Amino acid sequence: MLLIFGPLLPGLYWALLPALDGAVWQTLWRDAQWPQALRATLISSVLSTALACAIAALMATLYYPGWVWLRLQRRLPLLLSVPHAAFAVGMFFLIAPSGWLARATAQFVQWSSPPDWVTVQDPYGLSLALALAIKESWFLLWVLAAVLGEQAVSRQMVMGRALGYSRTQVWVKILWPQLLPRMQWPVLAVLAYGLSVVDMAVILGPNTPPTLAVLAWHWLTDPNPALQALGSAAALVLLAGLLIIALGGRGLAGLWLQLQPYPSGRRIPVSRWRGFSLHTLWFFSGYAVVAVLLLWSVSQGWFFPALLPDGVSLEAWRQADWTPFWTTLWLATVASMLCLPAVLLWLEWGPKQLNAMLYLPLIVPALPLVAGQYAVLLQAQLDGTAVALVWSHLLWVLPYMVLTLIGAYRAFDARLMTSARALGCSPWRACLTVKWPMLLRPLLAAWAVGFAVSVAQYLPTLFAGGGRFATVTTEAVASSAGGNRRVLAVQALLQIALPLAAFGLASVMAYALGRRRQGLR
Questions:
Q1: What is the spatial distance between Cα 331 and Cα 308, in angstroms, rounded to a whole number?
Q2: Is the CB of residue 363 less than 8 Å from the CB of residue 369?
Q3: CA 104 to CA 306: how far, in whole Å?
Q4: How many CA atoms lie within 13 A of 426 on its CB side?
Q5: Cβ-count burial of 465 within 10 angstroms (0-12 exposed, 13-18 middle, 19+ buried)?
Q6: Is the dihedral of CA 159, 165, 168, 170 positive or negative?
Q7: Would you state the pLDDT for residue 44?
Q8: Please, what is the end-to-end C-alpha distance for the chain in angstroms?
Q9: CA dihedral defined by 101, 98, 91, 395, rounded to 10 degrees?
Q10: For labelling alongside 483, which of 19, 136, 179, 429 has CA 20 to 30 A away?
Q11: Number of helices and strands (H, E) in the chain?
Q12: What is the dihedral of CA 456, 457, 461, 463, to 10 degrees?
């Protein structure tokens, strides 16, 4: 843990030190791109976070508990495995003026050319906010599913419904006041990602000027020290913006809880409308993204307003550069395999009071952290090496693996370990022969999540790799400016294929290793 997190402190000092000069802030304030970049960043991040929270809250309120909720839980891993950059590419193909939705509309209104609408890369970042909201709502619902799986919460829902209250009343009066404090850290992680996202902003966000995170990334990678200082100042602005928005949101949530009236005892009849179309539309957005990517990857010619390609060809797949695929494969495998034993040892014998420190990379904008990592690598003369690339990914892979595994670890029956110790097993042997084999499914799920997180990393790969290592994520973002939609679709699909393969392998291994043990199936 010290090797992963320790160098960040001096790295942040070296990276952000140039921003302590007052002249740098004056230059930043006078920059012509600054106001519009800050506006697009605030609109896209705050709006996407609010929409993601609203979608997740609405889905949980409408469908928990019930068969639709169980279906949502089963499909969430598939949706979560789609990386952000690949999802942004698919959304671009879907909502662009010449995208699939416009083509479908053209069949009814007889358009012969794409409409003159700004549906992607708009100056306010609305298309970026929409894509972020849909993608992050899956993450928030995944966290909600874990919390709602606890017996205490489910018993309260059953008791409230047994007393005659409707599903919505139980949620508003009983569940949400308890769940909001527990959801503040996941929501903060969503906000932090929205503030510092670069790969999705390059594809869907405004270009002239871009969002503040993209602008800071351009400045930090510029060889001019003056522009690097501007990038450090912009990174500090992102940190300050996160703190201000988080404090404001916490204050509003606390005010809402205080203003909640005491339950009057009045029962509201249960509504017959279940919002069936809402979850169908929600799933459709994810499936449509993958479908349009598949169509573009095999299209031979596809001109507006045709709804389907004129012909099918595998030429784009045959001419694809597979080097980024293999680089991503070994990089994600090494990073996740290094983090798995570290997570196990930390959860078993690490200081529990420091668990919250591991989540800092999830709730802090990524750009300052990446800049700190890069400063450390420059001082150690390790930038552009494979070791530096793997180390840069560990900072984000490890927290997600801890977050995935810690619930199952806490729910493990401690009496089993006590019995093993009473039979003469050492703590190490008891873990190897009893605890960790019984946690096989959560362990494999944590590994798959770590693998998927490594595949999706964009900024760490660019900074630590020094441009010498191309992954499917960096290639997808780079291809988004090239104009060849077939090449872009192929790289996006390769980016999706790797996490899907990891989750599939984890499921197969869990079944194969646990088929003779009923409790592990």
A1: 36
A2: no
A3: 8
A4: 2
A5: buried
A6: negative
A7: 94
A8: 32
A9: 180
A10: 136
A11: 27, 2
A12: 150
- Strands of 3-135, DSSP E: none
Cis, peptide link before residue 35, omega less than 30° from 0: no
Give the DSSP H or E segment for 94.
helix 84-95
Q: Using one digit for the tens of pLDDT, what is the confidence trace for 475-503?
A: 989 888 776 888 899 999 999 999 999 99
What backbone phi and psi angles, to 5 degrees, belong to 150? -70, 145
Contact status, residue 129 vs residue 44, Cβ threshold 8 Å: yes
pLDDT of residue 117: 85
Q: Which of 180, 184, 194, 204 is nearest to 238 (CA)?
A: 194
> Which SS3 state, helix, strand or coil, does residue 426 take?
coil
Tokens of residue 119, six digits? 């549906």
Three-state secondary structure call for residue 86: helix
What is the amino acid identity at position 72? L
Is the whole-model pTM more than 0.85? yes
- Which residue, among 44, 31, 225, has the nearest Cα to 128 in the 3D structure? 44
Cα separation, 2 vs 250, in Å, equals 31
pLDDT, one tens digit per residue, over 209-243 is 899 999 999 999 888 899 999 999 999 999 999 99
φ and ψ at 299, to 5 degrees?
-75, 140
Q: Residue 55 corresponds to which amino acid?
A: I
Cα distance between residue 102 and residue 194, in whole Å: 27
Closest CA to 477 of 121, 89, 206: 89
* Cα–Cα distance, 394 to 460 (Å, whole number): 10
> For helices 276-298 and 84-95, what crossing angle results, to 10°?
90
- Angstrom CA distances, 54 to 153, 401, 415, 499, stand at 20, 26, 41, 27
Closest by Cα among 179, 206, 167 to 53? 179
- Both tokens of 80, joined, read 């979560």
